[in-house]
């Protein structure tokens, strides 16, 4: 059985929302990907930058 997925909307500013991702991931038990974070991650990888950043969720810390 596939786990359910959902969309979460927030009115927080991008920086505030990005800093709350690790706590939200722990609470939900699922990865949480913000569009600004995903765009930034893609831009870094597309330019050959493989740095990882802690404190902004699984996408930036592990991929």
Tell me the layout of helices and strands.
Blueprint lengths: L13 H6 L1 H8 L6 H12 L11 H5 L1
Structure description:
With 63 residues, the chain is an all-alpha fold. It has one domain. Helix content is 49%, strand content 0%. It is built from four helices and no strands. The chain has helices at 14-19, 21-28, 35-46, 58-62. The termini are far apart.
In short:
This protein is mainly α and 63 residues long. The protein is built from four helices and no strands.
Estimate the global geometry from the Cα principal axes: globular
- Count of separate DSSP helical elements: 4
Largest sheet: none
Structurally, how many domains make up the residues? Answer: 1
Distance between the termini: 26 Å
Instruction: Tell me the β content.
Output: under 5%
Oligomeric state of this protein: single chain
Write down the overall mean pLDDT. 82
Q: Secondary-structure element sequence?
A: HHHH
- Category from helices, strands and their pairing: mainly alpha
Gyration radius, in Å: 12 Å
Helix proportion range: 40-55%
